[in-house]
Please model this.
Amino acid sequence: MRSSPGKYKSSLFRGDVHSAQAALWPGAKLSSLMQTRLKRPRSRRNWWRGAVLILALWPFVAWAAARFLIVATPVASADAIVVLSGSAAYLERTQKAAELYQENYAPLVILTNDNQQGGWSTSEQRNPFFVERARHELKRAGVPSEKIQTLPQTVSNTHDESVRLRDYAEAHQLNSFLVVTSAYHSRRALWTLRRVFDESGVEISLIPASAGDEQTFAPATWWLHQEGWAAVAGEYLKIIYYQFKYS
Model:
């Protein structure tokens, strides 16, 4: 039986197409692979440029982030200097308070008490409370014992301290406080105090201990230390929390 010429040509044509596709496909696949490989180096270069830029800018960003947390208000004098609790940060805070007392900013120093104990004291054979250590440092720096008072109630956070201080001011008819705290705590502390003392008639001012002293890392280097991340990055988390809770 003879095949139709048309069928024969159609078969040849299909065969040619399949052969052509088989011949061309490896080249097309190779071209696609080459394009992918050409794109990868460019993507890697962009990634490295971005990484280098971040590393170059990071010290300035870290410094600005730390500096933003530090605030102070001008003050001539006050009825009392207040040292906010800070557990292990008591040393830098009491040193600053003693300095202000010696410069006659106020005739009285008030301590808040977070009811936290410090390390073991070999001389006392116990773990003194941080408020006891703060009182000791003030006396050692020249503040008379009778000029140091402690809030009768214990406190648990900055807002709690502010409320207790307002109650104390009302009970003792005090009209102004000069608050001392750590540098990176100063912005949140001042914001909280002003909200709590709003319309109380009590004037609030604040002077922080210097950043870069023995208990607070400097704005330029805090990010090199684990404690610095807790102090600076952790403070931003607390600010966000306070904005939601106490606004």
Notes: Confidence is low (pLDDT under 50) at residues 6-15, 17-25. Strands lie at 80-83, 109-113, 148-154, 176-181, 203-208.
